[in-house]
Amino acid sequence: MNSKQTLLPSTVPFYPIPSEDKDDGHHPLHASRGVRRLSWGMFEVAYEPPVCHFSFNALRQTLRELRQSTPCATRLLLEICRTAWTPFTVHILAAILLVIAPAFSLYLSAAVLGVVEQSVGSRRVSDEDVNMLQVLVLIWLFIAIMSTLATRIMADTAFALKGHLRAHFLPQLVKASLRLDPTALTSRKAMRSLPEEYGFDMEVPGFRFFHEVITRLRNFLTVVGEVGVLVAIISRRGVHETQLLAFFVLMLPAVMLLKPSSGFGGAGFVFWTPNRNFYYLAALYKIAFSRDFRPTLARDGLCAYISEEYEHISAELGYQNVETLGLQPAVPVQWYWDLIHSLMVDYPLAVCALMLPWAEPLTSLVSMVLVQHATTTLKQSIEQLRWAQSPDTLVEVLQGAEELYESIAFDSKLNRGTIAYPDPHLNGKGMKIVFRNVSFRHDQEEQVAFAGEEPLLPISGVDFEIPAGSLAVVVGGDHSGKTSLLSLIPRVQEPSAGEILIDDKPLSAYDVDSVRGAMACISQREEMYPLTLRDNLLMGAGRDAKRNEEILQTAARLGCSADFIDGLPAKYDTILDPAPVIAQSIQGCGNAYITPAAMNELETHGPNFMPTFVAEGDRQRLAATRMFSRLLQRKDRIRLIVCDEATKDMDPRDEREFLRNVKELGAGKTIIFVTHRFGDLVKDADVILVMKQGKVVQQGTHTELMQEAQRSGGCREYAEMYQAQAAGFL
Predict the structure, then answer these.
(1) What CATH code is carried by the domain that includes residue 120?
(2) Which end of the chain is more exposed for a tag (fewer CB within 10 A), N or C?
(3) Percentage above 70 pLDDT, the chain
(4) In a domain, 563, yes or no
(5) Residue 445 CB-density burial (10 A; 0-12 exposed, 13-18 middle, 19+ buried)
């Protein structure tokens, strides 16, 4: 056992930590090329120092990128201007005022000090000096008032701009998202480009670009204006005062801009500890305070054990049981940077008093006041220039405009086809489906995997034919590829090889929306939309209220969900899983705790975002109701009904009722069932497809497949599944 494992009691599970060699146990540690390592208490920190080097090639590359990004940036600014002309114009005018105000205020402060210096130096105060002083101070205060108003106006117009931008761009992004097939929607490009599903209350397309451009330009011009005014002021002072002011004008920006934002030069960093006790303690902490584990802990009588274990491991860890939140923001900069910053930025008055010759006390005193005011003003502007925007470079900010337009124009690679379906010249009610050597493999590199999602399994070399108007049953064990196979028919996925024919024409030749409009599908895991049950069940229906109500009641009866819906307090107006919108202030941003009285007002008058618990069986009945509603709405257009494990969580009575209703309502249409529970369904099937490891290993009727199993060397896959279920093992 190595030294890292000796700290652990025998009860601690093993958390794999890579073995590392330290040279002195503290600073620094071995790391990959370009990455630096150091110790911070019991944590080991790794970071890659930012590369800061100037080259003409890099400058040319930056200028080239700026030139390439400018057209899209200009286009977006003009579009924002056209979309929200009034708030845009007022916002820009307020920003211009805030650019001019600091420099003008600095000039007025120097003028006021000049009048005071002249009056005190001459030992007489004339009426003209008093009037001049009053005028300058009034103008100075007027500028301050206007700056305050301009700041408020910018906040108000920014709020209005956000509303205009959401109204203008979000419908376009919604349209772009809904153009994508499921494969394209889960691609890495789509994940980077399109808004997140939970971002409704914060997504404002284009505003970040606008805000960054205006803020950076405003802050830069403010600093330039203040430096220009300071240069003009310096030129009118004495030699010593000129040198001193010039020193601070040069040193203050240099110190503030060159001082690293953290001890690692602003680089991002990671940290971990080789002490496994810390991570074990984190797991015990989660178990102790989580509601998810409490029923199991209580049932097994382990609450006292967890308490004792936490106390024991906490004692082992001792004072090293630190919170990591304090380490996450940043590591402090080196001490000498803090010292220089303190002298130049925080205590310029003391430095000025030390450096002035004091041959003329009044002049020196005025210079001290001027230095203090100038450094304070310049400090605020430089801090805004450095910290008031995101860490993105100007090139990256301008490229945001191009990314927005790419998102709006985003489209899938799916060939959407042009032929309308169904063909009006064909009299049949069903859909003929032919697979010719079809294979499918999920693109793992392009797609983003989500936690809890089961990836589609590959299928290989599949051949079969389902005649129009027939009943087909797809059977097979878990992970045999049944769902992958069915996902190819509505083109949710595209085959990697082979050809799929619908009514003797390539599936890809048909308009994809018209083909999907001729299908009614239900799967094992159906998601209810975050809308009312009425909207869920009637989505896509017309506005005939009387007809829709008849469809709703009939579909609920056919889907065996009428009793469940009638038992809900809001019945068809129930939203099972609402889309929440933030409706509370954020504590720590000038807001205190929300009082119970205020929360009561929200609960009384605001929407209810609490989800409604629905058992899996009821969820499947609702999904069945939605499918029947679609069948009733489009009974003349529907050619194919697909039921993928649609009754897995239903009780036997409702399952039998569901199957009977599908057969009756789907008479003459092509019906495909995927099921684990065969029952009498397979005996009524016109064709049975038996899948195993992504291949169709058998196909035929029930009688044909059972007879095949009796022949010497015949495949017994179907017969074994059927007999096992008949014997009560499945």
Answers:
(1) 1.20.1560
(2) N
(3) 88
(4) yes
(5) exposed
